[in-house]
Amino acid sequence: MLPLNHFAVVVHPTEVGALRADNIAVAKKDIPGGMRLLWNGSDILVTRSVPRGSSFAILPIPKGHSIIALGVHVGFAARHIPAGGLLDAGGLGNVLHEIDRPDKVPYGSRARPTEYRPEWMARTYLGFPRQVTHQGKLGAGTQNLVVLLNTVKCSQVATQNLAFRARQQLLPKFPHVTDVVAITQEYGCGMPVGPAKQELARILTRVMNHPNVGAVYLLGLGCEHLCPIPGLEGSVIPYFEETVLDFARRVRTDHLQRYCSELEAVEKIVQGPLQESFEFANQFSRQPVPIASLTLGLKCGGSDRFSGVSANPALGVAVDRLISGGGAAIITETPEFEGYMHVMAERARDPSLGQWLMNLIPRFDKLSSQYPIPERGRQTVAPGNYAGGLLNIFMKSAGAASKAGSTCVEGGLEYADWIYDHDRRGLWVLDGPSYDQISTPALGLSGCQMVVFTTGRGTPIGSALGQVIKVGSTAEVGLDQHVDFSAQAVLDGEPIEKVGGALLEKILAIASGKEPTALEVWNRRLLEAGLPYAHHEFMPWKRWGDN
Known about the structure:
By secondary structure, the protein is α/β, with parallel strands linked by helices. The chain has helices at 118-121, 156-169, 195-209, 237-243, 247-250, 262-271, 273-281, 311-324, 341-346, 351-368, 383-387, 393-401, 436-445, 488-491, 496-511, 518-528, and strands at 2-3, 8-9, 24-27, 36-39, 42-45, 55-57, 66-69, 72-77, 86-87, 92-93, 124-131, 138-141, 145-150, 179-183, 213-220, 251-255, 287-290, 295-300, 328-331, 409-413, 426-430, 450-455, 467-472, 485-486. The strands form 6 sheets. A 7-stranded parallel sheet has the order 20-21-19-18-22-23-24, with helices on both faces. The protein has a 4-stranded antiparallel sheet with strand order 2-3-6-9, with no helix packed on it.
């Protein structure tokens, strides 16, 4: 008989605060049927083979009783599951959740004030100091980007070509500019003129004010609703002059209709006014800044059962340490709090925030009702997640939320709200969708300089607004050459605190420009191979109707 922890992981063997003791474990390796494992003095017979990454019971679970994973209810037993029994979709009833009375959630009951630690308050990284609000609040970029921004679909290709040409001809001349990036979107013309135009303009303002952005070249067509021509009726320039920091010096505007051809526009802009943008951005250089200036975005995608026991909790440790040094973190993906939001509400700093958090999922359900999602579809997971051992959204949510560490939730952000408009740092929750291509840049639009992206299945996705650091849940993640840090050591028995500490050191090294991300290395290789596109993804969350 061998100890269970040689073959499996149990995250919460006993109750922890408001969390409950797990009654299932996740297999670290294939466990053959008939094997006996020792757990808490008990002999567990594995009744049938348990594949690596699958879950099995460590206590008898009677039919109708709760299945507990990562400290929370993830479903009801559809049949009696003996200790050692494999948990599969047939044994998991997941339609109902025990948290169906938001008014019964003890908001703020688990909140505790942030414990600021001198050793972390004294830590620094090498960043680009930057004003982040009109009131003079300072932040610090981890990059110093020249951003090419389009105002309308019609100038999208020209904006992308400008970035391509500028990377060849201008970037090598300016050592303090870390990259030139085209951040493009497909709207600006065929859209309602009222709230839709205002929201798109606000999104572009967030891009221009981002702490990673040193200078901006704004390119339009000339006749769109989001018109970039000063003095023209309906021009968006007065709004940008009011909302964009240091607009007159940092931002240059242009439109294609004043040129004879798109090619002429690209060549003349690169040879002339775009050089001025590079010159302005090149004035900034890296300086030691406190880690209190750093805001991390927390994101996961292509998850598996190991994500919740290795990569995500290791990131949670790193987040706790960053916050103890005065820094901040933002976690998003509202649908992935299904079945776990009550725990976040219990960590809320006050009852009103707890109520706001509990309202997010029903509000998101209402928003999603306009899309063709099957009945109870919100409780399903993607095929890759299912193949990775996540049998329902509750199991995925419990693992995803562990990225947020253990500190209290300081506040909530609506989409494209600016964290620097608030006085408090610490952990924040951003309302937004789970789609990687929308939620990753959404974290940047709220002020995150970097996104830490945990994955059990692998992904190449990046972000135009900052580095994306990939953290693999095991050593066998797909696209492993795109992974910056593996949490495999947790599965090998390394203490989670040690692995999380090593992850934070990796984050700070990348923030300081001492190490590139794996994605930055591959972006260069893609371009060197003659491929036209790098991973600078950006997709706004479109919440308006088409005209």
